[in-house]
Give the backbone structure.
Amino acid sequence: MTGKRRRLFIFVLIATIVCAVISVSRLITHLFTPYLYQRDFLQFYLMGHALRGGANLYAPIPELAARFEPHLNNWLDISAYPPIVAIIGLPLSFLSYFWAVVVWLIFELGCLAISIRHMTKYFGASSLPVLVTICMYISWQPVYIDLYLGQFMIPIMLLLILTWAALKEGKDFKAGLFLGIVFAIKLYAWPLGLFLFIKRKWRCTVVAVVVLLSANAVMAAWTGTATVVDYYTRVGGTVFAQYVFDSHNFSALSMGFRWAGLPGAVLLLLAVLTLSLVLALRSKDFDTGFMVMLAASTILQPIAWIHYLVTLLPVFCFVVNRSEWEKSDLFLGLLLIALILPGFYKIGDRYPAIAAWPPLLFIIGLMFLTIRTPIREGASVQRLASETA
């Protein structure tokens, strides 16, 4: 790095360290407050208890809490996770709730560190734009929210990065295993699976579907077919109905539903899916198309929360590593940064009618910015641009 670039990086790094210390201190402080019991983590923690105790995985949360952990009865109504997630919660259920939260937080931080390591490996550890982006990402509010809630999005991000890496190495079977685990945990990135199928990555997509079906078969054999059927016929619809009108739910399906009922939901979902597929399939290389569909996956779910955006780290690194920028690209990039500033969501709390639009528009703009990314010629990024289709 030149002297100016080095000073810029040092400044950003110091700011990141300060923000990270503040975030970690907040996370630790909340462990000793009532907020400890207001986390999404409790869903699969109680599912693990239910699996171990022979209870219904999808009994009301207060009912499961009353039996296994009375402090957890005032946050959610029912678990939204697929049955296989109970196996993840099973070993955690042997710990007290406090220590289970701590262990999961450490696990998420480990997944975050490994993901960052992969990004510096793929894009070059000396790329200043990538390093600055990673620093800003660490300080980003959605990352803190995911860690605070004890969610799955950081582990899912790591699995998607590993899927991409395996595809680039020509290991489609391995990529299918990683993508299948994502599908089993949360039917997330299904648009990415559709893209891979259209690109004739059939081994990857078939393996991913087999992993998903096998996970459900295992749980059907363990808990009974009724549990698996109940999740896909009742629980999913119940959770969607509970959150479809939430002003901070920015999924295309939910926003379309709030706009014009079921026809609006279908119309907006198909419009976004079609747009993303057209952009991805017309991209100049496989990597660009992959990143477009990875971005689109965040808003093509029945429900989308702000912490879903943590899966976008590979997209951010891919975009900022471009070799040249037009003025229009810089303008679009600055506009997208403005759309995701945390303060805007505080305004959204006061004006619910506009709360979901910034992240939705951010994703659409990001897809357009991604397809305009010239591939840098450096040796470390030559691997990125290798055509795998």
User: Anything to note?
Assistant: The mean pLDDT is 88. The chain has one domain: 3-385. The CA atoms of residues 292 and 316 lie 11 Å apart. The two ends are 35 Å apart (CA to CA).
